[in-house]
Amino acid sequence: MAELSLFKTSIKVLVVDDSAIVRHSMRTILSADKKINVIGVASDPYIAANMMKLEAPDVIVLDVEMPRMDGITFLKKIMTQHPIPVVICSSQTPKGSNNALKALEYGAVEIIEKPKLGTKQFIEESQVLICDAVKAAHCTALKQVEQDFQLDIQPKLTADAIIAKPKSALHIETTEKIVVVGASTGGTEALRSFLEGLPLDAPGVVIVQHMPEHFTKAFAGRLDSSCKVSVKEAEQNDTVIRGRALIAPGNHHILLKRSGARYYVEIKDGPLVSRHRPSVDVLFRSAARYAGKNAVGVIMTGMGDDGAKGMREMKDAGAHTIAQDEKSCVVFGMPREAIKLDAVDKVVPLVQIAGLVIKTCGV
C-alpha cells in the first residue's frame, strides 16, 4: 500500500520496499532529519510509478529484491525514462550484495543496509549513514555545493578517536612507495577506472571506499576480475605489496602500519570518524605517520570532508597528494575540502590519476 505526506522540506524522498517493517523504519529514520521529507512509501515499483506521476521525488530509496518487479528492472526504467538519484537499500546476503553492486553499474549512486534493531549507538549511527546517503544522492543531481545541506545530525569525531596525531613522522628505513586512496559517492566507478589503469607491478594500494559492511568483499571481487593488479578486501595484518590493492572492510577502520621495511594494515573498530567508518582521515593520518614522504595520497569523488585533514597531514609529512577534478567527480565535496586546506599538490581528471600515480612513484 502507499502512504503520502503533505509536509514539504528540502529533499523529497520515495521509499520502495516490499517489507512493511523496512518501510516504517526508513520513514522514521529519514523523517527525523529536518532536511528530508518522505513524500511516500510503496511496497513495489508499480505502486511507486503511480505515485511518481502525482509528485516526482528528488531521491528514491529502492530495494533490489521484490516479488512483482525487482529493483534492478525498475532502476533501468528510471534511468532511461526519467533519471532520478537512487539509493539502493539492500540485505547483507551474498545475493543482496551482488545485486546492489550491479545496481551501481546501472546508475544507482549509493548503497545502504536495510535498517534493523540494535543498540542506541547503532541506531544513531545508522541514521547518520542513511540520511547522509540520501543527501549525497541528491547532490549528484544538483551538482551544487553540499554545504547547502549541512550534515548536522551529530558532531563529527576526528581521527584522534582512532589514532593519535604524531608530533613527527617515524624515521623511514625504506624507499618503497605506498598509495592510499579515499572515495565516497561515485567512488565505485572512479576506483574501477583508477585500478584498471595500474600496471601489474604497481605500488601497493590501500583504499577506503565508503560502503556498508558485507558489500566490500563482493566489490573487491568484481574489481579483481577486471584489473591487472589483484584486489581484495583487507584483513588484519595483510601485507601491502606491489601489484595488490587492499580495500577497507565496510564498518571497520583501516590503518597503514610498518614493521621495518614491511608495510601492513591494521583493521580496527571504533566510532564514526568524519561521519564514516571506515574513514579516509584515519587511513591518511596513518600513512602520514608510517609512510611519510614514501606515500602518495589520492582523494576522489564524494560528499563531505572526510580525508581533507588527513591529506593535509600527509602533505606536511612530505607525501605527494592528488585530487580528482570537479568535472570528473560525481560529487566534488571531498576533493574540494582538501584543496581548501592547501593539502593537494595536483588536481587532475579521473582518467589521468593512475598515470600520475605511476609517474610519481617512478614505476
Helix content: 25-40%
The major sheet is characterized as: 7 strands, parallel
**What's the total number of strands?**
15
| Radius of gyration using CA atoms only | 20 Å
Q: What's the domain count?
A: 2
Regions with little confidence, pLDDT below 50 for 5+ residues: 1-8
What class would the helix/strand composition place it in? alpha/beta
Q: What is the terminal separation in angstroms?
A: 59 Å
Average pLDDT reading: 89
Helix-strand sequence: EEHEHEHEHEHEHEHEEEEHEHEHEH
What is the CATH C level class of the largest domain, in words? Alpha Beta
Q: What is the fold named in CATH at topology level of the largest domain? A: Rossmann fold
Strand content: 15-25%
The CATH architecture of the largest domain can be given as 3-Layer(aba) Sandwich
The name of the CATH superfamily of the largest domain reads Methylesterase CheB, C-terminal domain
In DSSP terms, counting alpha (H) and pi (I) runs of 4 or more, how many helices? 11
**Biggest β-sheet: strands ordered side by side in the sheet:** 9-10-8-7-13-14-15
Shape: globular
Report on this model:
There is one protein chain. By secondary structure, the protein is of the alpha/beta class. The protein has 2 domains: 3-149, Rossmann fold; 159-361, Rossmann fold. The chain has 11 helices and 15 strands. Helix 3 (71-81) links the parallel strand 4 (59-63) and strand 5 (86-90). Helix 6 (187-196) crosses helix 11, helix 8 (280-290) runs parallel beside helix 9 (308-316) and helix 9 packs across helix 10 (333-340). The longest helix has 23 residues, at 120-142. Residues 1-8 have low confidence and may be disordered.
